[in-house]
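re: that chain from earlier
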Amino acid sequence: MYPHQIERLTDALERADVDALIATSAENVVYVTGFRSMVYALFRTAQLAVWTPRGSALVVPAIDVPAIVNERIAVDHVIAHGGFVASPGRGEEGERVRAVLDARVASPADGLARALEVLGASGRIGLDESGIAPRLRDALVARVGHGRVVPAADLFGSARRVKAPYEIECLERALHIAEEALNAIVQMLKPGVTEREAVAVLEAEILKREATTYPSIIAFGDLSAVPAPWATDRALRPGELVRFDVGAVYKGYCSNVGRMAVMGEPSARQQEVYEAVQAGVEAAINLVAPGVTAGGVFDAAMTAARAGGLPDLQRHHVGHGIGLDHWEPPTLAAGDATPLEMGEVLRIEVPYYEHGWAGVNVKDTILVTRRDSHVMNRSLRGLVVLD
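^ sequence. v structure.
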């Protein structure tokens, strides 16, 4: 764990007057320990990461132990639960796997109690409620005592808002990988290419660059008006808009970029709507700075987009934070008085969806700097005209 993360978690812990923080979501467990469980990704097994200023612990199913040892996850204690049986093998790593498995406990609740004991956390604890099933939460609370447990999802969200230099580097690389893959799509698009074919090329390009994929949107014509469509076998036709809403994940950190293209010269309406959306995005970016409120950014974006040609545009937000999760605090929403902080990474958008016509969206990723902001994207925002 980097000093920045220790500082952020310590601040959260002290503000809430708790003795330990317990992560349950995949993103919060990664933030605390660096461990990303394949088992959790497949089966949503119970995983807990306990953090205190005195040390950290992972409480995981026994099947996770070989991966934790193999990846040399830097935690002070690993406590296994469950009945998974493995042959640890020989050597230093095998002995460590054996030692952890030999000391396993019966349940996650028992594992949490042991972790708190070895870490000396006898006071109130903050339990992240975002990644835990109600039955397990009840068992954990009963095991450690109802009076000791307070909600902690917001504490983790607050800690993760401001990014460390390493996190910013990962976010930037994830973004540039997505943009490089997107450029490959732009080069291959022509009438007759289907959405599904375009998405397949995008995902292959992302995997080539040592990143992983998540569902991306490449939508043609009237299907681009559906905010979150799956790719279909619909083929691109002359004169149609293409909406790209794509991203990649690099070392656990997410990216998301939105761009627009048109197959041939744009119509007057296509150009007008695109320019209004882009005006909203640019107004938001130009306002971003430490101390500016999330609601102020929303107002700037909406005012510019409406003045630019979309007078009836309505939105519930114009972006949010991005990091280990696709959506993190703060949300740039109307009336939100949350001040922006240096080191936050924001994804800004002002989309317009008109059912039966098309959808237009532009998304940029912004780093809040000491005085203003920095656009992390390398790709241009202009409407791309496909030959």
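Residues 165-386 form a domain with the Creatine Amidinohydrolase fold (CATH 3.90.230.10).
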